[in-house]
Design goal:
Helix 5 packs parallel to helix 15, helix 14 packs parallel to helix 16 and helix 21 runs parallel beside helix 23. The longest helix has 25 residues. A hairpin with a 2-residue loop joins strand 24 and strand 25. The chain is globular. Among the domains are: about 200 residues, Immunoglobulin-like (Sandwich), CATH 2.60.40; about 140 residues, Neutral Protease, domain 2. The protein contains 27 helices and 28 strands. It has an eight-stranded mixed sheet. It has a five-stranded mixed sheet with strand order 15-16-17-19-18, with helices on one face. Helix content is about 45%, strand content about 20%. Its cofactor is Zn(2+). GO terms for molecular function: alanyl aminopeptidase activity; metalloaminopeptidase activity; peptide binding; zinc ion binding. It comes from Nocardioides currus. Belongs to the peptidase M1 family.
């Protein structure tokens, strides 16, 4: 079926014409226990401001029957995912019966069979316009309405939706139960949900909320292990946001459902879904716990920003995602144990935004979105990471008090409604007592990354688009060498305006521009500061200062102004003395990234061995032993490295560490299939097969590589999770160029036919881009493919961004 993508013009006209009073959606999931059939009956009650007018309802599922105001419709008129509606009355009732068997691809819905116990689980995820793939609706964000769900499901299943069930009773149909859920508030069609399966459910009452946690049966021990932490984070987040926004979450029930094979998470009102890779199969490290906390608080922030108040159209998608990303880090730093989250974010998570924003895939944070397909292209690091960094800069620019007051007014004035950007910026401007129109245009309507540099007493700002540089409110930290220490002399606040700004700074040996990471800009240190920062990063007392140096290393690599070996060496040196768990894993990750991917293939083994040396020293620190051993396992080179690992693995019985050691052995041409089989047999992880694929992926062996390729692109057997990104990185080994060269072009051939929903496609595109081995011929072909309109716009944008990084990587290897 050819599907038409709803245009902004069509959406505006339909919104002008219609008002949806409510949806009553009956769902039949009994066909999913042993088959693929999902059925629905959608009853839409709506009004029309121009009786006699015509419009259409969205429905991609197979329509078997439809009636409008009691009159049967000719369902054969349905085309391209649309059913025409003519002769509308002032008050209308539309009933559409539909079904689909497309429940295995992750397009709006996914049916999964757990490989360990053969139990079946089903989730829905409807952003941006995938509600229409399950039931008839006016699938656009500004036609909000209450939803009432009735779900027929197998009797052994538990069903979750946005609200609490009003009743659950045996159905007339054998072995089935009927679930009736309370009406939702006025919601957009993309944030409603129905999940079902034999879930394990835990409920707790706290602070006036009914908190629910769900997972598949095979993961019960992992949920129960982490339950206290999840409950604590949920309570902290609801309390923090409720107070800061002056509006508690207005529903008693708040569920969090961990589901298989979801590449990310989805902010369904009152019923968040996460990929259950967030229930870590071995006790999680500090960084894994922090990542999960960010997920929990990100999706929770959406209850206000996105669900309660929703953008009118997808051109303001950043209002959802950037805000949720910023708010989650803000809450982590202020309300949880992860008080150094801004340092972790800077060291590791801003890099993808700079990579995209410096290259040809860049785009303004907001921009015109002609149709929904165009909106999908903007689910990227600019929308999420640059967007949240710009909000962080706005808070520094107008002050936290005004920022918070603006948010409170925004939620108060627009609850359960739709907004445009001017509504938010107007609230900020009124709270701050200043006109923010120029700031808005400079930061949100222009693409590219400014570069800051300090020459003498002058700060220079280079804009990427040759226009007047953006205004930047930054701090400059001055340090002096004081024996073995680096003493902070002063932190100087500066408001940058124009291409140059004169500053008065105290005497010192080291200047850190953008101290505290208040703005989004690349930094070019003066030569003396750069040399000292690379040499003495570990001596800087402030975690954010150390993170700033590491962030600067990755920026300079992109600018082509730092040799990868210098960056990798600095990181390995810093890690020998780094003790902050919030920084250890980001530094280890960046260190491996630079030594493994950016370095010349001839230099990489030595740099990875030096990183392993640092990890072995770090492993002596109990607080950081786990991530240090993991990095050591991924880069082990010498007999001394293996001795440390063998002792640690034997003492702890750590299956995760054992897998990492097998992967590294395989990369070195020492794959032990018997050891793989033994570990697979004793590993209780229901998705342990992905770890076996990692061992195969690392192997310098044609048959092994082909097996992994088939899992990715033929069988679609790789669960969408962070493991997917790791698997892709392991597949493309720098030392296996001749073996892997043909696969680089096969990657491009897969993009036009890539299956799965938006989240899953995005993970695969990024995971399998061949950064480590793509040569100039591949880069030329990739850039040509990025102009091929048979490939989705989202995939083309990702291809441009990744190809820019590959080009800069080639350039850096020449330094």
């Amino acid at each position: 079926m050819t599907l038409l993508s709803l245009t902004q013009i069509e959406a505006a006209e339909r919104s002008r014409l219609l008002e949806v009073e409510r949806y009553d959606i009956e769902v039949d999931m009994t066909g999913l226990l042993e088959g693929e059939r999902f059925a629905s009956v959608s009853t839409i009650t709506f009004t029309c401001r121009e009786p006699g007018a015509s419009t259409f309802v969205d429905c991609v599922a197979d329509v078997s029957r439809a009636s409008l105001n009691g009159v049967e419709l000719d369902v054969s008129t349905a085309r391209d995912g649309r059913l025409p509606l003519t002769g509308l009355a002032a008050d209308n009732v539309l009933v559409v019966e539909a079904s689909t068997t497309n429940t295995g691809s992750g397009e709006g819905i996914l049916r999964t069979v757990d490989p360990t116990d053969k139990l079946v689980y089903v989730w829905t995820s409807l952003e941006t316009d995938e509600a229409r793939k399950l039931w008839a609706c006016f699938d656009q964000p500004d036609l909000k309405a209450p939803h009432g769900f009735t779900v027929l499901a197998p009797s052994t299943w538990t069903v979750t939706s946005n609200s609490a069930p009003d009743s659950v009773e045996d159905a007339a149909q054998a072995d089935a139960r009927l679930w009736r859920f309370a009406d939702t508030p006025r919601l957009s069609t993309y944030v409603v949900v129905v999940n079902a399966g034999p879930f394990h459910e835990i409920r707790q009452q706290h602070d006036g909320y009914d908190l629910g946690f769900f997972c598949r049966q095979s993961l019960v021990p992992h949920l129960e292990r982490d339950l206290e932490e999840l409950v604590t984070l949920t309570r902290q987040g609801l309390a923090f946001f409720g107070e800061k926004f002056a509006m508690p979450f207005p529903q008693e029930r708040y569920d969090q459902v961990f589901v298989p094979n979801l590449g990310g998470a989805m902010e369904n009102w009152g019923c968040v879904t996460y990929g259950d890779s967030q229930l870590f199969r071995t006790p999680p490290s500090h960084n894994q716990r922090a990542v999960r906390a960010e997920f929990v608080l990100h999706e929770m922030a959406h209850m206000w920003f996105g669900d309660l108040v929703t953008m009118q159209w997808w051109d303001d998608l950043w209002l959802n995602e950037a805000f949720a990303s910023w708010a989650s880090n803000w809450a982590m730093a202020r309300a949880t144990e992860f008080s150094d989250q801004w340092a972790s974010f800077l060291a590791l998570y801003k890099r993808p935004a700079y990579e995209m924003d410096m290259g040809p895939g860049r785009h303004p944070i907001r921009g015109e979105v002609a149709d929904v397909n165009g909106a999908m292209a903007n689910f990227d690091a600019i929308t999420y990471v640059k967007g949240q960094s710009v909000l962080h800069q706005l808070m520094a620019y107008i002050g936290e008090d005004a920022f918070v007051e603006g948010l409170r007014a925004y939620f108060r004035d627009h609850a359960f409604g739709n907004t445009v950007l001017d509504d938010l910026m107007g609230a900020y401007g009124e709270a701050a007592g200043r006109d923010l129109s120029d700031w808005t245009a400079a930061w949100l309507d222009r693409a590219g990354t400014d570069v800051l540099s300090l020459v003498g007493s002058t700060v220079h700002v280079e804009s990427a688009d040759d226009l007047e540089p953006r205004p930047h409110r930054i701090d400059i930290a001055t340090y002096a060498v004081d024996g073995e220490a680096m003493r902070e002399v002063a932190v100087t606040p500066v408001q940058l305006a124009g291409a140059t700004t004169e500053v008065e700074l105290p005497e010192g040996d080291l200047r850190l521009l953008n101290a505290g990471d208040l703005t989004f800009a690349a930094v070019r240190p003066d030569a003396a500061s750069l040399d000292l920062a690379l040499e003495r990063v570990g001596d800087l007392e402030d975690p954010l200062a150390r993170a700033l140096v590491v962030g600067t290393i990755t920026q300079l690599l992109l600018l082509g102004e730092l040799a990868p070996a210098a960056g990798a060496t600095s990181l390995a040196r810093a890690l020998r003395t780094e003790g902050n768990p919030a920084l250890v894993e980001p530094f280890l990750s960046v260190g491996h990234h630079v030594a493994d991917r950016w370095a010349r293939p001839a230099d990489s083994p030595t740099l990875r061995s030096a990183l392993a040396d640092a990890a072995a020293i770090l492993a002596q620190d109990p607080a950081n032993r786990q991530p240090a051993l993991r990095t050591l396992a991924g880069n082990a080179t010498t007999d001394e490295h293996w001795a440390v690992l063998d002792e640690a693995s034997a003492a702890a019985g750590d299956s995760d560490l054992a897998w990492r050691m097998l992967i590294r052995r395989a990369e070195l041409g020492q794959r032990d299939d018997d050891a793989v089989d033994r570990l697979l047999e004793r590993d209780a992880d229901p998705d342990a097969g992905i770890k076996r694929l990692k061992v195969l992926a690392a192997s310098p062996d044609q048959e092994a590589k082909e097996a992994v390729w088939r899992a990715f692109f033929v069988d679609y057997a790789v669960p969408a999770s962070r493991d997917t990104l790791e698997l892709g990185a392991i597949f493309w080994r720098p030392g296996q160029f001749e073996l892997l060269a043909p696969y680089t072009h096969r990657y491009l051939e897969e993009l036009p036919v890539l299956k799965g929903g938006m989240l899953n496609q995005g993970v695969v595109i990024r995971a399998m881009y061949p950064h480590a081995v793509g040569d100039e011929s591949f880069l030329t072909a990739a850039l040509a493919a990025s102009e091929d309109e048979s490939i989705s716009l989202y995939a083309r944008n990702q291809l441009r961004a990744q190809s820019f990084v590959l080009g800069r990587l080639h350039r850096a290897r020449e330094l």
